[in-house]
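Our collaborator T.R. sent over the components below with a one-line note: 'Predict the complex.' Nothing else. No constraints on interfaces, no templates requested, no preferences about which chain binds where. So this is a plain run: every listed entity goes in together, and whatever single assembly comes back becomes the starting point for the next discussion.
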Amino acid sequence: VQSRLPAGHIRTPFYLRGKSGEVLRVYGEFLDAERLAVGGTGLPAVAVYQVAFDWDDLWPYASGRSKGVRVLADLQENWLDPEHEQMQESSS
Amino acid sequence: MSGKHDDGHQPLQPAPLDDYEIMEIAVRELLIEKGLITEALRRKYLDQIESSTARLGARLVARAWVDPAFRDELLTDAKAAASRFLGIEILHGPELVAVENTARVHHVIVCTLCSCYPKALLGIPPDWYKSFAYRSRMVVEPRAVLAQFGTSLPYEMEIRVVDSTADLRYLVIPRRPPAAADWDEDRLASIVTRDSMIGVSDIALE
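Returned assembly:
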């Protein structure tokens, strides 16, 4: 998940930005909520994925026992990068 | 009732409208004036929303418990399955996804961004579902929050906290209590609670 901070109506929660997860389901194309919210038509449509995040990756400084917990969220494709691309970016 | 109020009581008056209420009335009147909606249509939708209760979701769950083919259909395309079985028009609403709780995996639903909720099947969400505390704590310490709902899950069970951040609404198919193994569909529907379909509790029999 990209860690951008754009203004406006964004459906990517802060706690997931910059985190890595695993795509569980591909839900298909939906009207773009970020454009719809500012009076647009929501087109072009964007793909929405259900992505699973390990609890330990989300809250690395938390204590407490949440072993076996995953958080699943539905995210628009424009917020997601394949993992290997992110690694290339960070190494360059 | 006398007109005197010298005992400190105020006469009953409607509360003044806040900004959002004034905005709602202004937009509503404009839409009606321009012929985009009618007052009758607005009432109809409002009535639909306010009259739907978790009973609809409970009927779906009970059917899924007794009919494996329907369960599969519900898990594959919840919107189509629910529309067909309940005979209600939910096709114009948001997409619907059913997730199943088992002995290995427990799902619980939250909307950290706002309060997305499958209103067509569960009615109006409870206030705690919309509270900042529930929305933020459920993704941070789900086991503790579930425990507050009286739900203690074994540590070997996977917990999936489903954050409904986009255009999909989630319904949990709770686990069927073993004691209800030979119950008929109507009796099963009577024990399926709203909270169990949000995933904050399992179904407990007396």
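Summary for T.R.: Residues 83-91 of chain A form the longest helix (9 residues).
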